[in-house]
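Fold this complex.
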Amino acid sequence: MLITAAALLSLNIYSANTTREMVFRSKDASMQSKVQLVVSSMSGLEHLNPDNVTQVITLLGDLGADRVVVTDQEGRALYDSLTNDNATGRIILLSEIFEALTGNDVFYSFYRTGALESRACMPVVSRDRTIGAIYLMEYDTGQGAIIAALETNLIRISLVLGAVVLLFSLIFALAFSRRVRLILQSIQLLREGEYSHKIKIRGQDEVSVLAEEFNKLTDRLRVSEESRRQFVSDASHELKTPLASIKLLSDSVLQNQMDMDTVYEFVGDIGNEADRLTRIAQKLLELNRLDDAPSDDLIVMEAKPVVEKAVRLLTPMAELRNIRLTADLELGCTVVTREDDIYQIAFNLVENGIKYNIDGGRLDVTLRREGDDVVLIVEDTGIGIPEEARERIFERFYRVDKARSRQAGGSGLGLSIVHDLVERNYGIVSAEPRAEGGSRFTVAFPYFGLEDEE
Ligand code: ADP
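Structure:
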């Protein structure tokens, strides 16, 4: 708006100036032709003297000029229409005459206090010799009035435009400050925990973009606040169950007369519940570590030895249930990761493959390169995962069969840790059923060849 007004204003000034310029130019042209007429009338003369000059001027008649001056080559007046004969012989102190006597033509007009004043001066040359100068001056109040009217109009238009610009600036400033106030109020509400609050500002300008970004930010905050609450409530619930069992078991031991075998059995159960609490606490700490881990401790490493270590550690657990655990691990599967991440992923998947397997079942672990990926596959012949649960098994505390998970010593956090670890290593994890029964977990990481590093 301001720019448009300024443009209009400058257009006005420009057009006023051009009109004035045109008036000046046409005036210059008419003065030029008049002075040329006088000069050519005198160019036949050998010398200029008051008599022959007066004669020529009288012959030419009314030149329409307010002052006509003719001087000799030294600038002495031979004729001056203003002072008649009294001026003869006097040096005329006009810069235009001195200019003309040095061989230059002078034509110009200027506007002063309501009148347009035009001056023209030319040398009179005879036989290549400057023998004098002709000076014409015109004082035009008619043209001056046109210019004066033009200037008054210009001032009026400028004033109106200025007022319009001021008015629009005021409206704009008020609207702007109202919108900024709205954002400020929303920030205060957000600070007080109102995550559902949204700013309603329409438009395409920076303030609207700011409001839109603010709304996106509150959305994110709301989602993370909700998931934080959900996590705290789930975690407390998970911790409450073993604690309640411990309380119940210890009360039973204290209140009932029991034989030593039952007491041992109850105390053993208390120990198991305490172990479960410890496992949950460990996994919670692990999740916390994931959130805090800096991203600058990434290294390029071979996946094989790490997966091998996890398989080796879990082999006794598989043997206990007579599960045949095989590992087909290729060398050259290099990935960019944190040292412990691949180990944690492999450990959790293999442990689940044992926990949710059938006694005497099979568990096959494969590590190989597939195109640009390094793929880790853990397949079991276990109980499988129902289709409706397949999407949810990576959620925190989700279990398909709570009783079985508890009995197997699960916390409902293993796969969610796997999911977070895989994601932060730019990989993908998925679960699918096997045709012959059981499940297949596949993790794909981007392959990082050592030649890439070079
Ligand atoms: P948990 O500590 O209970 O094992 P996880 O997060 O590791 O928790 O797994 C979530 C749930 O997914 C488990 O409770 C179980 O029901 C199911 N699940 C995980 N792995 C397997 C598997 N290999 N076979 C069948 N079900 C599985």
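Residues 352-353, 355-356, 380, 382-385, 393, 398-401, 405, 410-416, 439 surround adenosine-5'-diphosphate (CB under 6 Å).
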